[in-house]
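Q: Sequence in, structure out?
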Amino acid sequence: MSCGRPHETPCSQVVASLSAYIDGEVGAEEYRLIAVHLTECPPCEHQRQEVRRVQALVVRASAGIATPEGLRERIRVTVVSDTSHRRPGNDQE
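A: Exactly. Output:
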């Protein structure tokens, strides 16, 4: 996806970061770079709108669905256990 013009931040990088951008999970500088890119690139802005639309559909579709009892605690325990087994500098991903 590209509008054919060069950008400071490549379209592929913007598209890969859209969910994190929308959710506010990127740093201030990355947020700024993506925001600038979106104002300059209609195809990427369209993709951002599509991601927002899908997120809204998921929220609507899951409204009223209860989280299974104990799920949050099982996730927390798994995350804590997983991170406690990793050593700094020994990333396995």
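Helices lie at 11-22, 28-40, 42-62, 71-84.
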